[in-house]
Design goal:
The structure holds two protein chains of two kinds. Chain A is α/β, with parallel strands linked by helices. Chain A is about 20% helix and about 25% strand. Classes of the chains: A alpha/beta, B mainly alpha.
């Protein structure tokens, strides 16, 4: 059952949202990115005080490719609403939610790190989990999941048998 | 004041530091010994679990949750299988749900015991660690008894459990539950009235109610600050709506309040376990849906349908409908959620782990502003981070 507070927010935002989806008692509103800031501010003022999660989905090869997903929770009324913003790969820029929900700061950095989606107005948009000099964005569908050789400067890595040479096993001598 | 005295110092703390409970690096800007600015640097335990989960079937992915958060392994598995069950629209049989709740609450006690032991070590009460690990070991024995593994159990299945609990399970759980209050009283006598413990934790790393909401903090951190939010109460899952328990709340939001909240949570977990033991009835532990659960061994020799189902489930797994769900549980650290996106295939398009430590850690700079360097240790301990949980993408 969808909580009454979530229904009320969905009704309230119906004019601002492009589409609405309901699945397994969860409400999802698709919001155009120009209106995202207004929608978030209205949701926060409607007691959806917590940004529980912010993430993205790569829908390759669908167009638009990326979905940035916001999960808002109303603690007092026990209700959740999911917001989505769809962006193209060559124009992956979304307004930052950091001013409305300060907790979005790290979450947006993570989305930038993993998907390469930029957030305009973010105070310090840089990688958070991957090394600073990493190339590419790992959670994109076109980022291959492969093993990489580990480079050790100056020497070749040893295989275990080179460290402990294999010797033919000798039976233990029985105790006297 | 001379120019020299006004200069600030940037101190690097970690990533390898005994108090960071993993590998966490903090850049602290100090004036004397007072912290003006903190920048946590994370990512040292990033493992790419979310990427891995996109390339495996829903069933194969059960191995990842306990590795993401290794202190509350049963709760992790519970979180993941509930999310897949929500996506599929199936519900585990009652006996399976009850056993899951017993194991999840035992897991919560085990995790809080590790927290209690290690954070007491951080303020030099070293004996606590051994007492707490001693008690935790009995819970680990129960996990080993039911699943064969102390950690990384893989015991919960989409639609139920791997197998029923062995004989002697109820007695062993009851023995642990019976001993727990006495042990907790003893620990409280060691710490609550301990002058050093109180001075190190009271008024330290205060997080206000509003900041807890702003940063999306959950779990004992938020409840210590008076935020009345427990996923088990707000969004009951897996049968929790039938249980009677209280949600302890703090008022000041300091490290000491988080300590009292966690100790009380262990008592409440025990209450839930005792209720669950009473309502444990015989019955199946796996859902009777051949599209999700493997057919019983005996059917395979009699029915060709069973063989087909077995083959399809083992070779390609089940196909949830197109859609997306978010399902959360209350982990010892807060709201642990799985956001699964399905395109109708046998692997998730996106498996997102909402980990509580990530959000909780984000509030650390607010908590330790204008504190002394030595209080950072207490603050990190009171957040109870699992760096695997905060970093590993998770």
């Amino acid at each position: 059952m969808i909580a009454e507070a979530a229904e009320a927010l969905a009704r309230d935002l119906a004019g601002l949202a492009e589409a609405e989806d309901r699945f397994r008692d969860e409400v999802t509103l698709v919001v155009p990115r120009e209106r995202l800031h207004d929608v978030l501010a209205r949701a926060r003022d409607a007691s959806f005080a917590v940004l529980t999660d912010l993430t993205a989905v790569d829908r390759l090869p669908a167009q638009p490719r990326f979905e940035v997903v916001y999960l808002l929770t109303n603690y007092t009324a026990a209700a959740r609403v999911r917001l989505k913003v769809r962006v193209e790969a060559d124009d992956a820029l979304v307004p930052s939610a950091e001013a409305v929900y300060p907790g979005a700061n790290w979450l947006e950095r993570e989305v930038y790190d993993m998907f390469g989606i930029r957030f305009s107005g973010h105070p310090d948009l840089k990688r958070i989990l991957m090394p600073d000099d990493w190339e590419g964005h790992p959670l994109r569908k076109d980022f291959p999941l492969v093993e990489e050789p580990v480079h050790f400067a100056g020497h070749t890595p040893k295989v275990p048998s080179a460290i402990i040479p294999k010797t033919p096993r000798t039976p233990p001598t029985p105790p006297r | 004041m001379s120019e020299l005295a006004r200069e600030t110092l940037v101190l690097n703390m970690g990533p390898h530091h005994p108090s960071t409970h993993g590998v966490l690096r903090l850049m602290l800007e100090l004036e004397g010994e007072v912290i003006l600015r903190t920048e946590p640097v994370i990512g040292y335990l990033h493992t790419g679990f979310e990427k891995e989960m996109e390339t495996r079937t829903y069933h194969q992915n059960i191995v990842f949750p306990p590795r993401i958060e290794y202190l509350a392994t049963m709760i992790e598995e519970h979180a993941y299988v509930l999310a897949v069950e929500k996506l599929l629209g199936v519900r585990a049989p009652e006996r399976a749900e009850t056993i899951r709740i017993i194991l999840a609450e035992l897991s919560r006690i085990a995790s809080h015991l590790v927290w209690l032991g290690t954070s007491a070590v951080d303020v030099n009460v070293t004996s606590m660690l051994m007492y707490c690990f001693n008690d935790r070991e009995r819970i680990m024995d129960i996990f080993e008894m039911v699943s064969g593994q102390r950690m990384m159990h893989g015991y919960m299945r989409v639609g139920g459990l791997q197998w029923d609990v062995p004989a002697g399970f109820v007695e062993q759980v009851r023995a642990v539950a019976d001993d727990l209050p006495g042990r907790l009283d003893e620990y409280e006598r060691l710490l609550t009235d301990n002058l050093i413990w109180r001075e190190r934790t009271e008024g330290i790393a205060v997080l206000s109610h509003d900041d807890a909401l702003r940063y999306g903090c959950t779990g004992p951190i938020a409840r210590g600050s008076g935020v009345n939010y427990d996923v088990r109460k707000a969004f009951p899952y897996g049968g929790y709506e039938a249980y009677d328990f209280d949600v302890p709340l703090g008022s000041r939001g300091d490290s000491f309040d988080r300590y009292t909240v966690r100790v009380e949570e262990m008592r409440q977990s025990r209450r839930i376990i005792l209720q669950a033991l009473d309502r444990l009835r015989d019955g199946p532990v796996m859902v009777d849906d051949r599209k999700v659960a493997l057919p019983p061994r005996a059917e395979l020799v009699r029915s060709i349908e069973a063989v087909i189902h077995q083959f399809k489930l083992v070779s390609e797994g089940f196909h949830p409908p197109v859609g997306e769900v978010y399902s959360a549980v209350e982990s010892p650290r807060g709201e642990k959620g799985y956001y699964l996106v399905s395109d109708g295939g046998n692997q998730p398009v996106r498996a997102r782990v909402r980990s509580p430590s990530f959000n909780n850690l984000q509030a650390l700079p607010v908590m330790i502003f204008r504190h002394m360097v030595s209080d950072v240790v207490v603050a990190i301990a009171s957040i109870d981070i699992v760096l695997g949980d905060g970093d590993v993408d998770r």
